[in-house]
Amino acid sequence: MRYAQVYFLSLVSLGMMGCETTPKVDNPVLGPPPPRLESALKQQKLKHAEIASRANDRKSVLEGDFEDSENPFETPVITASTTSSNSTDEEADDFLSDSTVVAMVNGAPLFVSDVIGIYDFQLKQAEQRMPPEEYKKLRRALVKRDLKGHIERQLLIHEMKSTLKKEQLDQLQEVLETAFEEERIPELQKGLGVNSPQELEEKLNQQGRSLYSERELFIKQQSAIQFMAVKAKATNDYSREEVLARYKANIKDYEVPSKVRWQRIRITYAKQGGKEKAVGVLDEVIHKLQAGEDFGELAKKYSDGTRAERNGQWGWTRRGSLAEPEIEKALFELPIGQTSQVYETANSFQIIKVNDRKEAGHIPFADVQGKLEQSMISEARMKATKEILEELHAKAVIETIFDLDEEEVKSTNSAVQ
């Protein structure tokens, strides 16, 4: 997609030069958002029972409250009055068919098939193993989970069509179709283990998909993504000084505690038949250490510890991770390479040796500079994206057949896998 992205950026940038973000009234591709929600509904003949026949007073639907959300990306939605205690049960009973209109975005309808069509294969499998009522709930949960993203994509596409000229849109369509043929189709073939577009079509058909639907999805996704990249003017690089300032401001995130690598010979009273016999083994170990024998070999032969087979070796151990304070204190004070005195605990004798130690400090700036800069770039893009979406939401006319309560669909993923 690289060449397509470059072309897209050039095309859109030219189209946006001198243009305001507010759609032009005389735009030949798509007019401005409808001024009133009621007219949009009439124009599109939105007849769904959730909207057109539930409430006795239609005004309660058309003039519903815009609900606030802590999620900055959530679209303000108009909801019908929920004074009836049976409204939730009624919603659960309604089956959302593929042709059901679930949202109107600036006069354009979003159908159930637009939102969950990509799950057709999984949904068919789920329908076979789930009770009908559970399957209805699953479809509804999927729509509610994914609808917000589709609304935002629709907003971006509407803005793009209101900004670019018809000939630019036609050129963009050609570029994305070429990118689909030359790049996306080979990716799909590789992913599904086929060698030709014909085999790919057959494989997709088995999953309730097609090359046509894949192409349409690809073009919509790429149009929205690339247009957002142009609209969201975020910083793409930061100076060393700016990244260093962020590093210093969050220096605690890069703290590294002190740690040691060490060995231990542990002689337990129980395994030696009592403390007196353990003392005899300990004396033998001390004598051999003084004679210059290898600490690891002695640990492997005499130690009762869990790491005896590994020559008593312990990997990097952080301060505060041991249950024996006296042993831990010695680990961080004993000179590297020196064998310790004998430590007597409630159930064992222990001798330790420190092989390496790293003092507490911080991850060097040079080690994190690149990753930190990428994080800052990502944050800037997210902030710019949020601002663009908020701007588009503010001037859009949006209605859904239900509010986007994500708490109800937390378990949706597992249900369709």
Automatic annotation (TrEMBL):
The gene is prsA_2. Its EC number is 5.2.1.8. Residues 257-356 form the PpiC domain. InterPro entries: PPIase_dom_sf, PPIase_PpiC, PrsA_foldase, Trigger_fact/SurA_dom_sf. This is Foldase protein PrsA. It is an enzyme of class 5 (isomerase). One of its GO terms (molecular function) is peptidyl-prolyl cis-trans isomerase activity. Gene3D superfamilies: 3.10.50.40. It comes from the Bacteria. PANTHER family: PEPTIDYL-PROLYL CIS-TRANS ISOMERASE HP_0175-RELATED (PTHR47245:SF2), PEPTIDYLPROLYL ISOMERASE (PTHR47245). Keywords: Isomerase, Rotamase. Residues 64-92 are annotated as: Disordered. Residues 78-87 have a biased composition (Polar residues).
